[in-house]
Every structure is written in C-alpha cells, then in structure tokens.
Amino acid sequence: MNKPYVRPLSKTSWFLTQTRYKRYMAREVTCLFIFAYTFLLVWGLKRLSEGPDAFNAFVQALGSPLGVLFNLVVLIAAVYHSTSWFNVTPQAMPIQRGEEFVPGKIIVGAHYALWAVASLIVLVLGV
Amino acid sequence: MSERQIQLEVLRYNPETDSEPRYQTYSVPCMNEWVVLDALNYVKEHLDPTLSYRWSCHMAVCGSCGMMINGEPKLACKAFIHEYTDQIRVDPMANFPIERDLVTSVEDFIAKLASVKPYLIPKEDKPISAGEFKQTPAELKKFKQYTLCINCMLCYAACPQYGLVPEFLGPAAISMAHRYNQDSRDGGRDQRQEVIATDTGVWECSFVGACSEVCPKHVDPAGALQQVKVASTIDWYKEHLMPWMKK
Amino acid sequence: MEIVKTDIAIIGAGGAGLRAAIALAEADPKLRIALISKVYPMRSHTCAAEGGAAGVIKSDDSMALHFGDTVGGGDWLSDQDAVEYFIQEAPKELTQLEHWGCPWSREPDGSVAVRPFGGMKIKRTWFAADKSGFHILHTLFQTSLKYPSIQRFDEYYATDLLVEDGRCQGLTALEIRSGQMKQFQAKAVIIAAGGGGKMFPFTTNGNIKTGDGMALAYRAGTPLKDMEFVQYHPTGLPNNGILLTEGCRGEGGVLFNKDGRRYLQDYGMGPETPIGQPVLKTMELGPRDRLSQAFWGEQKKGNTVSTPWGDCVLLDMRHLGEKKIDERLPLVRDLCISYLGKDPVKEPIPIRPVVHYMMGGIHTDTRAATRLPGLFAAGECACVSINGANRLGSNSLTELLVFGKRAALSAIEHIQSGLPDGKGAALAAQAQASEARISALMNKSNGTETIAGLRKEMMDTMETNVGIYRTGSELATACDKISELRQRYANIALHDKTHVYNTDLMQALELGSMLDCAEAVTVGARDRKESRGAHQRLDFTERDDVNLLKHTLTHYHPTDPPRVEYLDVVITQSQPGVRDYSGAKK
C-alpha cells in the first residue's frame, strides 16, 4: 500500500534551516532599510516645505547620535543589498560576444564601476 | 587506500508499517575514496537488504541517486566520503513526498517537465533529405549549458519556493523551456511562454539561487529563470508601451 | 489482476525503446503504445555513452568505407545484409535527431562536426562533446513527450512474456511503486532493455544493466545469439570502471606502458605515429578488442604500472591542452578529477580495460524480428548482428536509432497482417502463473542463499574465467559454476516483505536474469573453439572460418544448460580477410 509521507515545512521558519536561505533572507530584508531611508528622504522634503525652522530641526536630528547610527545601519544594509544583487547580475544578464560569454567578473565589475562613478558625482554635487 | 568506520544515519520509512519516518544508524567500514553511494551499497549487501534507494550509473549522469547528505542536496555517487566526518546523515530529497526510505516521488517533476513543451518546435519545416539545420558553434554555445540538466531534481530539493508552493513549475522545467527558447532552430517560445510566464511559473521564483548552488552539472537554473523574467518583462513593455511593435 | 490493453508494448525506455515509441506514434497516431521500463527513461544507460554515433555524412566518406570498417572490425561475424541496411539508415537517423534538437557539436560553418574513432578509416562519428549518449537519450525522451499516444509505465519491471498460439501477445510486469502485477495485452512486443554487463564485477555498465530483456526473450523460448562476445573497453578508470571515451584517443590521446613506450606498436598496430597527429585505424585508433588484448600482453610481460587498484597503463592527453580538453572532453576531465583525483590536463591517467558492451543478444533478423512471431528486439539486448565479434566504437548509438525504428515498423507490419483476437482466458492464466511465481519468490523466507552472495560468486566466476583471454578448462569451470549457481538460486532468501519499492525483490529478479545470460555467455564461449574478435582462446588461437564462420544460438532450458545451435553468417560482399591495423600500408 502506497502512503507517501510529506515532511512538514514551517511556513515561518524554513529560512533558518540553511545558511544559503539566511543569506537570501538577509538580501531580501535589507531592502526594508532602503525603504526606510527613502521614507526619511520624503520626510525631509515634507519638513523642507514647512519652512527653514522645521528643516533645520530635521537636519539637527540627523546629526544626533541616533540619527548617525540610523544612517550607518542603513548604509551597511544598502551596501549588502546592492552588492548581493551586483554579484548575481551575470546570471540574469549574460553577454555573448562571438562564441564566448563575457566573463562574469567583468559584468559585476562594470556594476561596481558605475556605482563608484555615480557616488563620485553625488559627492561632487553635494560639496 | 585507508579504511574508516562511518556511522551512516539513514532516514527509513516503510509505508506499510510506519506512521512516520525514523533514523536508523549503520556502522559501515568505508574506503576513503568511496562515495556515499558505495556506503549505501555496503549496507544493502552486508547489513540490511531492506534498505531502498535508487541508483544506476555511479558517474553522475543518470540522475537517479539524489538525496540529502548532511542536509545538502547531493548525488550520492558524487558525495565523497573523504569530505565528511565519521558521522554522515542521509535523508531523502527534501520537498518531495517519501515513498519509502530514500525513494521519493518523481511524478510531479515529470508532469511539470512535460508541460513546458521541452522539445524542438522548429522555426521552419525541413525534410530529412535536405540535411541538418545549420547552427554555428556560437549559436550552440548560447543554450548548451541548459542542455546539461540530468533531471536529478536536486534543484527542487534546494528550492524553498517549491517547498512552500508545490505548484511552482520549478528550476529544471523552466530552464529546459529556456534551453529550447534559446535554440536558433526553435520557434516555439510563444507556446512555452503561456506555461512558464505565469504566477506558478517563473514569477514564483524569488531568486534564492540555491538551485544553481546545488546543481551537480553547473546548469545554473537560477540564471535561466532570471533571463526568462527579463525577456518576459521586455515582452510586457513591448506589448503595452509599443503596441505597434506587435507581430 | 489489472489488464492494460494496448497495441504494442515496448520493454525498455532507453535509446532504442524511445526511438521505437516515437516511430510508432508518428506512423499512426491511433496506435496505443505502452512504453514500459524499470526506470524513468532518462535514467536508462544510454545516458552514459560518451563518444558519439557513426553515420556517413562528409564528402570524403562513403557507405562502402563504413561497411568495410564495421565488417572488418567485427572480424567477419557481422551479418552483412544487416550492416548494409544499418549504414544506409545511419545518416538519416542522425539527421532526424538533429531535427529533434540534439545539440551535436558543430563545425565553424554550422554543419555537424565529426571526430575520429577506433577502427575507422575516416572521421565519421557525430558527437555532442563527450556526452553524446546523454544528449541522444534526453532528446529522444523530451521528443517523446510530444506524443499523447505514448503511454509510459515508468518503474515497471517486466517479469514474463505471454505467448499463446505461437505468438507473443503481451507481458506481465510488476509496478515497482506498488508491488502490484499488471498484465499487458498487446498484439506485438518490442524488447529494448539493454545489455547485461553487470554479470561482471568491473564494468562501465550501470546498476540497471542486468540482462533482463535478454533473459525475458530467452525464457520465452527464443534463442540468444553470440553471447560469448563481450567487449572490453580499453580505457576505464581503474578504481571503479568509469568509462573514458574512445574520443580521448580520437582527439589524440596516447597510451604508454610503465617504460613510456607506445606499446601498441608491439601488437601489430604500429609503426608509432607522432604524438598529436593521430592516424586513423592504427595505433591508439585501432579497434577495442585489439587494444584490450594488448593490455593483457603488457600485463603478462610486466610492463604495466602498479596502482592501488591493480595493473594499469597510462592514457596521456596532456598535449591536447586545456582548451581542447574542455571543449571536446569536458566530462572526461571532470570524471578523472572527481573520481581519481587526477587532472588529464596535467598528468597521464592510469586506465585498464573494463567490460563495456555485449555484442550478443536476442537473435533478430534484419527486420529486428525474433524467431517468436510478434516479438521484436533492438539495441544492446538484440543481436542483428551488425557488431559481429567486436563492435566498432560509435556504432551502438546509431544501432539504437536504426533498429529501434526498424523494430517499430516491423511490429506495425505484424499487427496489420490480420491477427485473430487473443484468447483472453489463456493469456490471463499465464499472467496468473507469473504473478504466482513472483509472489512465491517474495514470500520465500527459509532460503539459505543470499542474493549478494550468489551475485558475488557469479561476478568472480566471470571475472576469473571469462575475461579478455580464455581457455577451455577455465570456461568449463565457469560453465559448471554458473550452472551450480542457477540451481542454488532456487534457494535464495528474501528479507524484504514490503510491497512498495521492494528493491530486494528487484535484485533477486535481476540476479535471475544475469545468471541465465551468464550461462549463455559461458557455454557459448566454451563451445567456440577459435579466436575471433573479442573472443580470444589461448588453446585455439586462430580464427576458424571453415567451421565457425557461424553464429552461436543458445536455447534456454529451465534446469539444464542451454542447447547450442549454429547459424551461418550472412555474407553479401566481403569474404573474411585479414584485419590489418598496421599503419605501414599507408
């Protein structure tokens, strides 16, 4: 008599069973930090529209230890999130030149290079 | 060739007598150059003829002996004893129902593979007497990697999405559709898109990437699925933003 | 017992079985086709073939050359009418596979590429890197999914053929998943269940290659042919017998003994050819039987290299370079590194001959028909015979296709010949008897013999006495021993009483098949008092065309050794001659 046994899989904690799942969850969860930072920027715009006093208070809050800590955490999360995506781009967007495929390192490298250039422009404009 | 005593912990399940699986440990004298399959064969020959598992080629090409070895999806014929400690745990492939011991159900995968039309739907008809379709080495290389799938289903055992949503077509089936879509001789992409560019098709994939990490043949199904997503997205934009581009 | 009514039942879903199924489905979509296999189709051993498939396609090649290479390679034991049909159909079948999507390797202009193989005068082997059989199998399997009329019965083990009114009308099979028996009522049956190399301990064959299809036909009263011809592949990994394709040598790999000498030149295959410039049909591109025999000679002379796994010679591919090895022989490199820890790019690989293929099998004619009406056979389990006393590398994959299709067409002719309806009651009674046999086997508890024990004795017997070189006394010993093991088989114990996936029962049935086939091998070898192709006798060192230009036919007997009969070889255009693999004539 056949009686296939289906092993239970926890809907809420399956990702704790393997390191690669944790890594995946880390990539997914870090997007929340990017969302939070986007929200912060929108909040800043709102404060700006409310006048110089409101905006100064906002900027001051950013400079507080809590504000700095928040920025630092978001930065780390954003870097992790971005690099984990950069590293898989060759899989999603392979480029074939003639017979050979462009090595993944070059595609990933191009992303890092673009990132560096974009950051540089933002820094220059900021200063 | 040194010998080691390995404690092989195997998940046993007999549907006719057990209500749920249990572990049974065998003490197996293993040569260091053995693979886990050799250890299982030792058990079958010398310790317990009732242990059930599938195997055939012993050279990682028939795809029969997929199982979880210390929790990792592996072909038992390519899991080398020397890479493990003296305690090795063997489970049937995750995410599949257990029929008995290390034997799991294959039917769901076969049905999914068949559903994606995994065969050449030629762009043009050509009689055999007219000879072969021309295909340059570059055109061949474009899809060659995806032809290497041995249907071992380790990618399904690694895919949490398949575990959570059993309707998901899964890595190997969609990769095989992609293989034919990428073939210069094929003209069947539209037919396959109806099956794979769906909610239980490629859009169920969240790019965990585990499938590609465990693939014993380096097929990179995760890459194939992301490429299908990119192509499907381009289709959508063409259809909605550039309706005049429609064929 | 459930009865499955079908028009044509195919046993075995490897290359030949799938090709037959597709041919049937294409010929008539209304035909009901039952494709029955003890494993899922993609697990079939066709997947392990590496090198490629032979077929005349290039302008420098000709049908006459393919004919000559095949017949000479087979030491004139091939039936030449079968070879003529085979070589004509070969290119069509390989092109058909291309049209179905097989990823054949290509020339820069996009045409199909060919590579050199042993025993061939011209490059003729179509290849898909070094995974040709794998790609052929998967292309066929995936193509078969197109046809709704092909009904698959995966993981069903065929136990008996049903023969009534002098014709084959179906079979019984055990559904491995449930342990239930099913009766397949069919108007014709095609056996395509592969060879039985697992009767030897050291083989490239997978675990499933247990001669079940051969034994099935044999027990039903149709003879096996030329079973004594067992091919040793010259290049197997010494620790586990994993195959390194002949393509290694086709691409330019060379063989050395322990002194670094290209020893093949000492066995009639010289003179030595320059490294990196392989010359067709000589030295490393000689035929498999000669190369394996040369190894034996080196071993006797003490010229082999000692390894922990026994005596070896060295296969050197280093001069091919990493790029070529990765492009043409990626699997070989992976197998050497994974299973032996040696990289062919960096060092020579120790190898030794390993049992690879059975030239013999179910006796069929050029129509793939057996002597039992309604029963057809194709692939390694059959013996048409195109392979004669020694199969040429890369003819077997083509054979699957050509004769798989041929078996299908012949089966259709058979069922269209106006057959009367089968006698249901008589067939059902036979099916019941088969079921009773299986359940008696499964319920045996008081046996004293173990499956593993008998299997080991069988393998040891075959290894010791039925190897590359054979003698009358060793073969007599082997015949007695196998006969004894067949008697003792009646007394085996089965420990597993579960119906679901009872692999203990499977192994018992497979052992029964192997013992039946092994007896045909040993008796055929003992009685063939000559040396021809893969059958080399130290006590009869010459080929005897006067008395033994004949096929051996062995007829099954349930308890006694088989009855042996001889059948003339069909000669149409090539009289037996000298097999010359010396390059000197060029």
Write structural notes for this entry.
- The complex is a heterotrimer of chains A (127), B (247) and C (586).
- By secondary structure, chain A is mainly α.
- Chain A is 72% helix and 3% strand.
- In chain A, strand 1 and strand 2 (100-101) form a beta hairpin.
- In chain A, helix 1 packs antiparallel against helix 2 (52-63) and helix 1 (19-49) crosses helix 3.
- The longest helix of chain A is centred in the N-terminal third of the chain and has 31 residues, at 19-49.
- Chain A starts with 18 loop residues before the first helix and ends with a helix.
- With 247 residues, chain B is α+β, with helices and mostly antiparallel strands.
- Chain B has 2 domains: 3-104, Ubiquitin-like (UB roll) (Roll); 107-245, Alpha-helical ferredoxin (Fumarate Reductase Iron-sulfur Protein, Chain B, domain 2, Orthogonal Bundle), CATH 1.10.1060.10.
- The mean pLDDT of chain B is 96.
- Chain C folds into 3 domains: 2-229 and 359-423, FAD/NAD(P)-binding domain (3-Layer(bba) Sandwich), CATH 3.50.50; 235-355, Succinate dehydrogenase/fumarate reductase flavoprotein, catalytic domain (Flavocytochrome C3, Chain A, domain 1, Alpha-Beta Complex); 426-550, Methane Monooxygenase Hydroxylase, Chain G, domain 1.
- Chain C is 35% helix and 18% strand.
- In chain C, the strands form 6 sheets. A 5-stranded parallel beta sheet of chain C has the order 7-3-2-11-19, sandwiched between helices. A 5-stranded mixed beta sheet of chain C has the order 20-18-12-23-24.
- The longest helix of chain C has 25 residues, at 503-527.
- The relative contact order of chain C is 0.17.
- Classes of the chains: A mainly alpha (127), B alpha+beta (247), C alpha/beta (586).
- At the B-C interface, helix 1, helix 2 and helix 3 of B face helix 3, helix 4, helix 9 and helix 14 of C.
